[in-house]
Amino acid sequence: MIHTGRIQELTILRRTDAGLYLGDGQANEVLLPNKYVPGHFNFGDPIRVFVYRDSEDRQVATTLPTQFALGAFAPLHVSAVTRNGAFMDIGLEKDLLIPFAEQERKLEQGRRYVVFMGLDEKTDRLYGSTRIERHLDNSALTVARGDEVELLVYGRGDLGWNVIVNGRHQGLLHHGEVFRPIAVGDRIRGFVKQVRPDHKLDITLQALGYRQYNDANAELLAKKIQQHGGFLPLTDKSAPEEVQREIGISKKAFKQALGALYKARMVRLDNDGITWLDQ
């Protein structure tokens, strides 16, 4: 079959005034309009295309790169808001419609949101949805504690950042686990910190073996030391303003974090700064 919303490899069958007709080997055909026809081709060649329905509701193919495909999630910008819903730019001539019923909250033109691409089986039309959690499934997890995972940040709540884990599960990145700026739509790497009895996933940005001292500020300090080549020119006598500028925490929190790293034998304290000890 030729599937709407998917990137597929089809075969070049014949040329017409409108473009190339492509086939799937099962008597199904779709038009690749002239503007997408490659400069050089041979009949019988395979070609990778994305299939969608155009403004006249005809199934057509394109060689334009698309940001995502059916069943996937992607950060998109709102190109327009009309009485029919919000239209998202997916890099094609026709934007993706998010009906009001599929909006978690009212979308604003120009802003970026994480979107799921679905297909209306009755009309064979693609649609978008920002009701992300209804399209995630934690009932049968494919990850375990300690696994490295791919994350897509899709929202922020009181406890932390809501993330899509490996494109299929819901996870939570607690505020205390984040030591750098992130935003909705960011794709980052992380680790499964904990799998709860209800199958909810707690996520961290550091490998679990790195968290021997179990202290968020100590982890932040350790990261800063390593980012500076294993030496940081701060001591327990450094001015609070200098600590705040370098680490982003208070002098008291810095001394506690430094003590935790020293107790864990992660650092050496010198007169002119902190040295990271190779483990």
Task: Give a brief description.
The chain has 279 residues and is mainly beta. Helices cover 12% and strands 38% of the residues. The protein has a 5-stranded antiparallel beta sheet, with no helix packed on it. It has a 5-stranded antiparallel beta sheet with strand order 8-7-6-9-10, with no helix packed on it.
What would you note in describing this structure?
Helix 1 crosses helix 3. The chain has 4 domains: 56 residues, Nucleic acid-binding proteins (OB fold (Dihydrolipoamide Acetyltransferase, E2P), Beta Barrel), CATH 2.40.50; 61 residues, OB fold (Dihydrolipoamide Acetyltransferase, E2P); 62 residues, Nucleic acid-binding proteins (OB fold (Dihydrolipoamide Acetyltransferase, E2P)); 61 residues, Orthogonal Bundle (Arc Repressor Mutant, subunit A). The protein has 279 residues and is mainly β. A 5-stranded antiparallel β-sheet has the order 3-2-1-4-5, with no helix packed on it. 12% of the residues lie in helices and 38% in strands. The longest helix has 13 residues. Strand 4 and strand 5 form a beta hairpin.
